[in-house]
Design goal:
Length: 687
């Protein structure tokens, strides 16, 4: 049996596959503060026991990102090259709001009195210019311990080219402060840019104790249940890593969980012939969107946590699936201001107290309360009927914002839904329109508890080719973890002219990185024959500052590489130059061969929607007001069954809302595919 759990701010999801290779799912409320308790609860609820012979366990969690955003990590010190103590303070000169004269740079995670300089210096090619003063490293560690630091980050200039000084310094620190959590910058990234490297090392050190403690508690509970083989955590790069490695480099888990849904969207899209997909994951706290082009999930090493329109955030130089996240989920709280305007989020009711409709919920109105009042969610089916939600409590909460606005409760509920849709549309546009992609060329795959509720309306607004609601949509990220593989990424900065004479150096770098990758997987007990590799280069024209990433093969010649770079540069920036080209960074991705495929339990054989009809109920739509809408049981909708909107298709983890001018059909994967009944002339041309 293979098992995956995904912890969100509101719910904890479970997906598992037994010897019959049939996918099964379950869900419980999350337990903030002790998230591992919810994992125990959902495993109990599913009846998973030692006799099930669990051969792999994959986990996704928001523990790391929450610790960073809420600043709940351990006190951290920094040891760096003499003269570079204030790199974190200086940061970058670019700022998000150029005309804000009250702008203040983000407060560093390491206060200045905990930033220590030592004498050492390497050249950019890794050659030693000044030997490391080991005694100064020891004194810095002793001072850090006396000041209360629990973790120490070490980041020396040009350590990406040669880590020898960082290794020696770490050994010295461990001699005098053995209990400290120590992070060396070359372990987190070997890509240049000193501010970003320093930030990444510091943030890793800051959350190391939090992540290690959490994973130890979780592992203890799992082992007690007889789950002790192949314990893995979802990484931000779309792959998995062992608990052991995750404890050492928790910064690679910042988007653990959400990225699994993107990976699953790409896999299901390719299987159904949908190569271009915009994924939309609407959970209890946030909505997350990512763009998949030609079946490829986009990665970035230009990731920042806590970035806002007024703050540049904190950079992490580590491969992360390119996701845009905004504070608009089912638990997002609606409010009014002194000017009589309705607002939404980013505050969320989370799992505790939860939306007002919950049995022990809060008193403030949320998006979930609005959807319940609008009739889009069945109160008798919430969490499969295990959570007794109240429409009356939802109405009372929404009335608190309706009265100041002079609106009826239903009007205010629609206003909250419109605001949520607007924020979610913005997330989608940030990964598509803002980057030169036309949403009309893509399919929108909506999942998470709120994805099926909002997806059809968002897809209609953007005129996407279709809206796809995958099976087990409410637990789709957990399902995605079962589709992922052990993965590790290496980035090595080595600036070279892209000329034929550099061919031998390029081959040597690929060989060294591949050797390191195989050693990494060997330590995990993986046969080298079961590891595959992909290669990419960051290139630029001579004189440029930034680069374009180009997929290559290790056997590609320099002229071939230059040709592909020119084509990609033209695609992204509309032009090529007759100028020399430089190689800047080498990217190697190593993947373990994937797990065996699984399938859904036998899809129903119903041949018409009438066989799945449950009844009717009034549902509130913006343009038509209340409409009596048929409701269908998704579990009874067979492949090929089609129905016209308006309609509600219900399942235990969510409800799919099909708009009045839309049509839904079940494809061979069991996904609900929603299209417009009447296409505009423009859509007809595009199709």
């Amino acid at each position: 049996m293979r098992v995956a759990t995904d912890i969100g701010g509101t719910f904890t999801d479970l997906a598992y596959v037994g010897a019959d290779r049939v996918l099964r799912v379950d869900k419980v409320s999350s337990t903030p503060g002790e998230f591992e308790v919810a994992v125990d609860q959902v495993l109990d609820q599913a009846g998973i026991c030692p006799e099930d012979n669990v051969e792999s366990f994959i986990h996704g969690s928001t523990v790391v990102i929450n610790a960073l955003i809420e600043r709940k990590g351990g006190p951290t010190a920094l040891i760096t090259t003499a003269g570079f103590r204030d790199v974190l303070e200086i940061g970058r000169s670019n700022r998000p709001d150029a005309y804000n004269y009250r702008y203040r740079k983000p407060r560093p995670f390491v206060e200045r009195h905990l930033r220590f300089e030592v004498r050492e210096r390497l050249a950019r090619d890794g050659q030693e210019l000044t030997p490391l003063d080991v005694a100064e490293c020891e004194m810095a560690a002793i001072a850090a311990k006396a000041a209360g630091a629990q973790a120490i980050a070490i980041c020396f200039l040009h350590a990406y080219a040669n880590p020898v000084h960082e290794i020696a310094c770490a050994e010295a620190v461990k001699q005098v402060y053995p209990e400290a959590f120590v992070t060396m910058s070359h372990e987190t990234t070997r890509e240049w840019r000193e501010y970003e490297r320093t930030s990444t090392a510091v943030l890793n050190a800051y959350v190391q104790e939090v992540a290690a403690t959490y994973l130890e508690r979780l592992e203890k509970r799992l082992v007690a249940r007889g789950i002790d083989r192949s314990l893995q955590v979802m990484q931000s790069n779309g792959g998995t890593v062992s608990f052991r490695h995750a404890r050492e480099l928790p910064i690679k888990l910042v988007e653990s969980g959400p990225v699994a849904g993107v990976a699953a969207a790409a896999a299901m899209g390719l299987a159904a012939g949908r190569e271009n997909i915009i994924s939309l994951d609407i959970g209890g706290t946030t909505a997350k969107s990512s763009l998949i082009e030609r079946g490829e999930v986009r990665l970035t090493t230009d990731y920042r946590i806590d970035r806002t329109p007024r703050s540049p955030g904190y950079p992490i130089k580590s491969p992360v699936v390119d996701i845009v996240e905004i504070g608009a989920g089912g638990g997002s709280i609606a409010w009014t201001d002194e000017l009589g305007r309705l607002g939404l989020g980013p505050q969320s009711a989370g799992a505790r107290p939860g939306p007002a409709c919950y049995p022990n919920g809060g008193t403030l109105p949320t998006v979930t309360d609005a959807n319940l009042v609008a009739g889009r969610i069945n109160p008798a089916l919430f969490l499969g009927g295990r959570l007794a939600v109240s429409v009356d409590r939802a109405r009372a909460a929404i009335a608190t914002v309706a009265r100041p606005l002079g609106l009826e409760v239903e009007e205010a509920a629609l206003g909250i839904i419109r605001l949520a849709d607007a924020k979610m549309l913005n997330a989608i546009k940030l990964v598509s329109v803002r980057r030169g992609y036309d949403p009309r060329d893509f399919h929108l795959m909506a999942f998470g508890g709120g994805g099926p509720v909002h997806g059809a309306a968002l897809g209609a607004e953007l005129r996407t080719r279709s809206i796809v609601i995958p099976p087990a949509a409410g637990m789709f990220s957990a399902v995605g973890m079962l589709m992922t593989r052990l993965r590790a990424d290496w980035v090595q900065t080595k600036v070279l002219p892209a000329v034929p004479d550099s061919g031998e150096v390029v081959t040597e770098v690929w060989r060294d990185l591949q050797t390191e990758a195989l050693a990494h997987f060997d330590a995990e007990g993986i046969d080298p024959a079961e590891v595959t590799f992909t290669h990419a280069l960051d290139l630029r024209y001579l004189g440029q500052e930034h680069t374009v990433t180009v997929r290559v093969t290790p056997a590609a010649s320099i002229p071939e590489i230059i040709s592909v770079f020119g084509e990609q540069h033209e695609q992204e920036f509309t032009f090529q130059l007759a100028a020399p080209v430089e190689i800047v960074d080498f990217h190697l991705t190593a993947l373990h061969i994937g797990p065996p495929p699984f399938h859904l339990s036998a899809l129903p054989s119903a041949t018409s929607a009438d066989e799945a009809l449950k009844g009717e109920r009034p549902v509130l739509f913006e343009r038509t007001g209340h409409v009596s809408v048929p409701t269908y049981d998704r579990a009874l909708l067979g492949v090929g069954v089609a129905l016209d909107g308006p309609a509600i298709i219900e399942e235990a983890s969510s409800s799919t809302v099909v708009g009045p001018q839309q049509r839904a059909a079940v494809d061979e994967q069991g996904s609900i595919v929603i299209t417009q009944k009447v296409a505009t002339k423009e859509q007809e041309v595009l199709s």
